[in-house]
Amino acid sequence: MPVIIETDMYCDVDDMGALAVAHVLADEGRIDLLCVGVNTPSRYGVGAVRAVNEFYGRPELPVGGMFPQTDDVFPRDYAKFVAERFTTSQGTVPDAPAVDVLRAALAGQEDHSVIIVSIGYFQNLLALLHSAPDAASDLSGEELVIRKVRQTTVMAGQFPVGRETNITDFAEVSRDFVAHWPLPLDFLGWELGFDVITGSGLSPHYSQDNPVAAAYEQYCGKGVGRRSWDPMTVSLAVLGESAGYRYSNHGRVEVLQDGTTTWTEDPTGPHRITFRTRRAEDIATELDQMLLRSPKFAAKSDMVETEVRPGGTPN
Question: Which domain of life does the UniProt lineage start with (predicted)?
Answer without folding.
Answer: Bacteria
